[in-house]
Amino acid sequence: MNQIPFGSLEEFLAMGGYAAYVWPVYIIALAVLVANLVIPFRTERRILRDIARRLRREQRGMQ
Length: 63
Prior knowledge:
The chain is mostly helical. The protein has two helices and no strands. It is 79% helix and 0% strand.
């Protein structure tokens, strides 16, 4: 039951001869996951900065 599917690290990295297809997919998936974390934070920061800028502009206009 507890058999390791690959006998060595080299066999694991080779992915049974499909490494050229498997590893790029992992890299793309990781890039998408990172983008899904980073983009909303950057967008929120930009929106909050724009709101603060507009509020400062409005306050200067009222004085």
